Amino acid sequence: MAAARLKVTDTVRQQLQQFINEQALPVELVDTDDASVCVAQAEPRRECGIDQLYPGGWITCGVARQVALRLNISLKHTGMLLNLLDIKVRQCELGLLQ
Q1: Residue 86: its pLDDT value, please?
Q2: C-beta contacts of 44-53 below 8 A and 24+ residues apart
Q3: CA end-to-end distance (rounded Å), the chain
Q4: Cβ contacts of residue 75 below 8 Å, gap of 6+?
Q5: What DSSP string runs through 75-97?
Q6: Which of 1, 61, 81, 91 has the maximum number of C-beta atoms within 10 A of its C-beta?
Q7: Global pTM?
Q8: Residue 10 neighbours by CB under 8 Å, 6+ apart
Q9: Which pLDDT score is estimated for 26?
Q10: The pLDDT of residue 92
């Protein structure tokens, strides 16, 4: 199975690469626009979407689940990724990201 592509900025690249390596996730960091999901800089607490994650932002639990599907990673790893990016989960569906 091909690795999902995660577009990232230079500011978080090293941190995310370490996380991906430690967790042995099938995710490739790229800087091209053909990525499954993009991590972008934004003002604090901006709402994240299915294809756009904003460090310091927020995301609903349902959208976080869709991000996990796009990246082909477990919900547990998605929760860890969101914590790493300081993205807060709103409208929690208890236990979904454990």
Answers
A1: 93
A2: 45/88, 48/87, 53/82, 53/85, 53/87
A3: 24
A4: 64, 65, 68, 96, 97, 98
A5: HHHHHHHHHHTTPEEES--TTTT
A6: 81
A7: 0.83
A8: none
A9: 92
A10: 77
